[in-house]
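FAQ

Q: What does a record look like?
A: Structure on top, sequence underneath. For example:
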């Protein structure tokens, strides 16, 4: 997929998920969450080529400019959207699937100092509410929803709703469709 196609896809995903979005140009110019994601792609490319210091330096400049801190080692899928952005922190070994959405103040952080996998994995279609903290090398199953200010420290199966401190997963209730904010028939501008 070309860089231009990927940018168009990102803009379409933002438009889908943000009811305040008025147009592609506004999104491209004024959405710091997208700017952080676009910059992350460049820094991640340096990181995987072994250019660790320039990658980290670039990610810090992006953090100063956008308020979003994404470690260049994090692996991020397609159509990822950060709404509002400020205060989001994504750690080095975090893995984020396709069609994931984070609100402001979310932390995908570690709980240990040992090497290896220290940060969470969010599978496809996960949505994370404002201020939520997902900590440690845990897995949040596909199409799950993490409530605002929840603190998640244990794995959750697919299609879970996680709320509370500490968060406890529950299945969706009959007729409850938390995927509505993340699904659409196509991504077209």
């Amino acid at each position: 997929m070309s860089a231009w196609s990927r940018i168009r896809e990102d803009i379409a995903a933002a438009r889908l998920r943000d009811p305040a979005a008025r147009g592609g140009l506004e999104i491209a110019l004024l959405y710091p969450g997208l700017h952080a994601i676009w910059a992350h792609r460049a820094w991640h490319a340096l990181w995987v080529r072994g250019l660790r210091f320039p990658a980290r330096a670039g990610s810090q400049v992006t953090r100063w400019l956008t308020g979003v801190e994404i470690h260049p080692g994090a692996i991020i899928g397609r159509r990822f959207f950060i709404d509002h952005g400020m205060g989001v922190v994504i750690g080095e070994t975090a893995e984020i699937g396709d069609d994931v959405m984070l609100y402001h103040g979310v932390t995908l952080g570690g709980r240990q100092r040992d090497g290896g996998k220290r940060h969470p994995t969010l599978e496809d279609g996960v949505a994370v509410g404002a201020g939520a903290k997902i900590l440690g090398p845990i897995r949040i199953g596909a199409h799950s929803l993490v409530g605002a200010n929840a603190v998640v420290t244990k794995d959750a199966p697919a299609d879970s709703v996680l709320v509370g401190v500490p968060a406890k997963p529950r299945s969706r209730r009959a007729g409850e469709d938390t995927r509505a904010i993340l699904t659409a028939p196509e991504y077209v501008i």
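Q: Is there anything notable about this one?
A: Residues 180-189 have pLDDT under 50 and may be disordered.
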